[in-house]
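Hi V.,

You were right to ask for the full record rather than a summary. Here it is.
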Amino acid sequence: MMMKLRTAVTAIALTSFLIAPAGWADNSDQAPPKLQMGARNGGDGAQFYGEATEQIPQEGASEPGAPPSQEHPDVTASEPSMWDEKPHQKCTDNGDEHPEIHCVNNGLLQPSGPEEPTGGPRTITITTRQAATLIAQGSGITRQPPGPKVIISKAFIVYTDPTPRYQTTTILDTAIDVEFTPISYTWNWGDGTTTTTTDPGAPYPNHTVTHHYKHTDKNITTTLTTTWTTRYRPTGHTNWHTIEGTITTTETSTPYDLVRIVTYLTDDAEEAQGH
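Predicted structure:
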C-alpha cells in the first residue's frame, strides 16, 4: 500500500510539468515557468491544484545574469491554478505495469478554459503576471550604518518602506489602477543566514530588524526579497478586486566590509593617565 501511494504521488509531480497554465508567456529568451502541483483528498473526491512561478522581465533591467539592484530588482509572479474536483471512482488500469500511475494520469483534470463572450459589457480582469510587469521597484533597503564598513560588535540595522505602491495601466481602452501591498520581507544577510518577517523595520533608536555578524569579511551585501499582494479597479471606481497569487521583488544593497574594533594602548595614553 505504501509503495502504491509513493508511485501515485510521483505521477502527479511528473504530469505537472506537462501542463502549463493558460496565459503564461512562451518566450524562448526566458526560463520557462516553474510549475508545482499537488492534490487534496476529500470525502467524495480528490482535488488537484497547481501554481506557476515565472520571472518577469523589467524594462531597463540589469544585464542577464547580473545581480539585482535597488534600481533594477528581480521580479517574479506566482499564480495559482485550481483544478476541478474529481469524484472517487473505480480505476481502470488497462493492464499497465504500474496501474497507480495510469489511474492518476487519467484522473488529472485541467482547469476549464474561459467561457466564450455572449455579448453585453466586457469584463476586465488582470492576472498576477500582468500586474508584475507594472511594478518598477522593490520596497527599498536602508541600512544603518550606511557607510562602507560595519562593526561586527554592533547591531546592523535595516528597514524598508511598507507603503503600498500604485500604478495605472490601460486595458480594453479602460484606465485601471493597480495597488501593490508588501506583506512579508526576507533579509539575506550575506553570511549564510536569513530572516523572514512581516515587520518592515524602523531606523535607530526604534529599530526592530537587526543582525549581528560574527566574523570579519569583505564585500558583503544584504538582499531583500519582498512579497506583495495586488488588487485592481477601474480608475474612478471605489471597489477593489483581488488578484490571485503573489509577486516578489528581490534587490541587493551596496557592498560593505565587516570589521572589528581593535584597541591599542599607546605611550601617549599612558602619559595622559599620569602613568
